[in-house]
Amino acid sequence: MRDKKICIVGMGLLGGSFAMGLIRAGNIVYGIDICEESIAYAKENGYITDGSVSGYGRFVSDADIVVLCLYPHVIIDWVKKNAALLKKGAVITDVCGVKCGIVEKVQSILGDKAEFYSGHPMRGKEVLGVKNADCGIFKNANYILTPTKKNTKEAEAVIRDMAETLGFVTFSILSPEQHDKMVGYVSQLTHVIAVSLMTAADRAELAPYAGDSFRDLTRIATIDETLWSELFLRNRENLIGEIDRFCASMKEFKEYLDREDEVAIKELLRLSTERRRRFDKS
Amino acid sequence: MRDKKICIVGMGLLGGSFAMGLIRAGNIVYGIDICEESIAYAKENGYITDGSVSGYGRFVSDADIVVLCLYPHVIIDWVKKNAALLKKGAVITDVCGVKCGIVEKVQSILGDKAEFYSGHPMRGKEVLGVKNADCGIFKNANYILTPTKKNTKEAEAVIRDMAETLGFVTFSILSPEQHDKMVGYVSQLTHVIAVSLMTAADRAELAPYAGDSFRDLTRIATIDETLWSELFLRNRENLIGEIDRFCASMKEFKEYLDREDEVAIKELLRLSTERRRRFDKS
Lengths: 282, 282
What we know:
The structure is a homodimer of 282-residue chains. Chain A has two domains: 5-174, Rossmann fold (3-Layer(aba) Sandwich), CATH 3.40.50.720; 178-277, 6-phosphogluconate dehydrogenase C-terminal like domain (6-phosphogluconate dehydrogenase C-terminal fold). Chain A has helices at 13-24, 36-44, 57-62, 72-82, 103-110, 153-166, 176-199, 212-218, 225-234, 236-258, 262-277; strands at 5-9, 28-32, 50-52, 65-68, 91-94, 115-116, 119-121, 142-145, 170-173. By secondary structure, chain A is of the alpha/beta class. At the A-B interface, helix 7, helix 8, helix 9, helix 10 and helix 11 of A face helix 7, helix 8, helix 9, helix 10 and helix 11 of B.
């Protein structure tokens, strides 16, 4: 993708990284944020062609593509407020980690004005802000598209083109419901586990003994509380189901330990090894 | 350490890696195993000076240091059977992941014949066998020493010297009880979590969507069932305590989700982030 006009709303880690990759590929990139400093940083570092915290109507109206890199609860408000500014035929997308309750709502607000084609780039970093932006993180990553019946093949092609320009190589199509069920397991449950391990007890005195396995497992325990509390709550039914299944599995393990059932423990370890191998990258 | 005579008992991943590193540093290394093929492989690849599956008495008798790279339950039997062969003043050590029930028993079998100074090299790999041996894994790693009142400073110096030769740079001294409590949290609980996540449900269809966080968290779900079932059971009281604390923490998280308590969830995420930062490598 080149020579497109792309407006990025939200100049944080992900918005900044999108801007950086898209401007380098030869597109015109506008940046919008509520923070003066983030816009100034993005401009100074050449991540955006132009940008502003106010009077940004001209950027929105000029854009072929608008990428909403906002906290979930802000997306709907932003669209309500700015829908009238959108260019007829523009493609709007987001990067939000939860889809139900957002995708259909935004589509109904937009009507025929512009097309909202939702997606979820499966790559991030454990740090925040445009100062940590890095378009290199998208190389070889996975992009999930979550269309509804209202979406067109044309808009899908636009999002894919943009994502490929950023370095994404694999694409999956899931319904918003399938998406939220999937992230409940592969992403949200794992974050809750890492968080619970750290909050279970204060064990900082054990830090010198923590090996790579402990560090790898808890890396995601460093977490943006504003974003993730919202993601967890928006997907709470799926997430509660996953927590229940996982805790039942921990309880089973503990029962085998309790009754010193070596055969049953070995069988769990064997099953775990077999299943985990199917998650290895081919 | 160089020009020492070192006998490695158990030519697996760890035994092979010890042999490889110690022979390269200029020591005479003997290898003992019950598997002909492992000894042959170690010889062919120059990991050992000599070795055998039987008639290995001369290697044991000649050794200044004997390193037991055996499954926990085999250690005591091996020492009982071979104590008489040990050279007076030899230092015996092990690499076992659980210490209680092993260290004092081995020391009492040996009496004044030779000194058993137990240790735990905190580095491994998710693969087994001498064919995966790699002495590079020990570079900059952590070695835990677990002496009792029966141990001497002289033997400690021998083990440290050997470990430094292999690349270990930090050393900690813990009692066998402190060691087992520590591994219950930083190592065993994390393995049980990874295993339980894989055994909770068959979700192989989600493999294409699993990102780095899922892969990092479950990397250790590929696990040697014979070794780890024994380690878990030998440390079951500590491990059950850790599982209970962790599950209580998961339950708390779930309750906050249930009642949509955003403030409480944010507080857990904030606490998690703060605590995890103290585990970052300085």
